[in-house]
Amino acid sequence: MLANQRRDKILDLLKEDGSAKVTDLAKIFKVTEVTVRQDLEKLEKDGLLIREHGGAFLKNIKDQVSSFSVANHDNLDKKELIAAKCLEFIENGDTIILDSGSTTTEIAKKLKGNRHVTVITNALNIALMLGAEPDIEVIMTGGEFKPPTLSLTGQKAADFFKGINVQKLFLATAGLSLKAGLTYPSISDLVVKKAMIDAAETTYLVADSTKFGKSAFASLGALSLINYIITDNGVEENHKEVFRTHEIELIIAD
C-alpha cells in the first residue's frame, strides 16, 4: 500500500472512531511505528488531525459531539432522495433497525410525524431525533461510543441483537466493492453490522452511488448478505450487472 493510500485509510479510521493509537495503526497496516508517526505528522501538517502522545485524534471532534452532528454531508441531495424512497418500504407497525450514518439520519428525519413504528438504533443522534416523537418507540443498543459517528459499536452492541427479530434493516456502508463486498473503516463495526443483518427479515442497503466501486479497510462479506439496494440514479451498468448476478434488487430513488 502506498503512503498516500495508507494515510487516507488512517484518516478514514479516525473519522469513524475519533482517535487511534500508534501501536494499533502499526499492526493494522503492518508497518513500523516510526512509519505511522510519520504518517500522523504529515496529516497533522495538513490540518486533518491532532497528534498526542502515543496516537492522534480527529480535529474538532469535541465541537462535533457537542452539536450532535454527523460529519459526512457529501452528496446530501442524493441521500435525501434515498431517504424519501425508504419511507415507501416502512409500514405502520413495523419494527425496524436504523444503522448509524448520514443516510440513515436522513431516513430518521423523514420518519418524524409520518409513521407509527419501533426503531432500534445504535446511533445516538437518531435516538435523540426520534425519542420525543409520540408515535415512535426508540430502543438503543449498548456498546462503546464512537464520537465522530455518534454511534455505539463493539461486541456489546452486537450482543443486543441476539434473539431479536425485526421486519427491516436499513444498513449503511462506507464502500461497496465488487471484490470485497460491503466494507467499513472500523473493524469494531463488523460484528454489529452482521448481528443487525441476522436479526432482520429483510436488509436494505442504503448508499449513494459514489460508494460503489470503493472499499474501506474492513470487509463484512459478500453482497449476498443484503436483499435490496436503495440508491440514486448514478449507478454504472457494470455494478447493475453484479447486483443482478447476486439476485439483489436495485431500487432507484429519483
UniProtKB/TrEMBL annotation:
Signal peptide span: none
HTH deoR-type domain boundaries: 3-58
Molecular function (Gene Ontology), one example: DNA binding
Keywords noted in UniProt: DNA-binding, Transcription, Transcription regulation
Highest taxon listed in the record's lineage: Bacteria
A Pfam family reported for this protein in Swiss-Prot or TrEMBL: HTH_DeoR
Domain called HTH arsR-type: residue spans: 1-80
InterPro entries referenced in this protein's UniProt entry, alphabetically: ArsR-like_HTH, Carb_Metab_HTH_regulators, DeoR-like_C, DeoR_HTH, HTH_ArsR_DNA-bd_dom, NagB/RpiA_transferase-like, Tscrpt_reg_HTH_DeoR_CS, WH-like_DNA-bd_sf
Name of the molecule in the record: DeoR/GlpR family DNA-binding transcription regulator
Species the sequence originates in: Mucilaginibacter sabulilitoris
